[in-house]
Structures are given as structure tokens and as C-alpha cells.
Design brief:
About 90% of the residues lie in helices and about 0% in strands. By secondary structure, the chain is mainly alpha-helical. The longest helix is centred in the C-terminal third of the chain and has 34 residues, at about 30-65. The radius of gyration is 16 Å and the shape is elongated. The two termini are about 15 Å apart.
Length: about 70
Amino acid sequence: MDAINYLDEIVDFDPVSELEARFYDIAGEGREDQLSEFLMQILDKIEKAHSALVGKLHEFNALLEV
């Protein structure tokens, strides 16, 4: 059940719009050093979220096999 709830939360979340807004705010202010740091933080978060998603998908597949 946790896997289904997790997947439901992902469907409702729109991170791309939030990233675009933040990216253009930083880029528009000419803060390239902060932009690089921001992009590295985003990559780290994407990696963690992807790992969590894969784990939940494995749990979901296990439920389907029962």
C-alpha cells in the first residue's frame, strides 16, 4: 500500500515548473556560481528520488506477483 501511495504523490507533483522558475530567477540575476551549485543540488535530489521510485516500483511489482 505504501508503494501505491508513493506513486500517487509523484503523479500530482510538478517539479519541472518549480525548477524552471528557480533556474530563471538565478540566471536572471547573473549568479553563475549559485547556478552551478543549484544544478548540482538538483542532480543529487533527482538521483535520490529516482532511487526511491525504483524501490517503490519493486515493492509494487512484488505485490502484483502475490
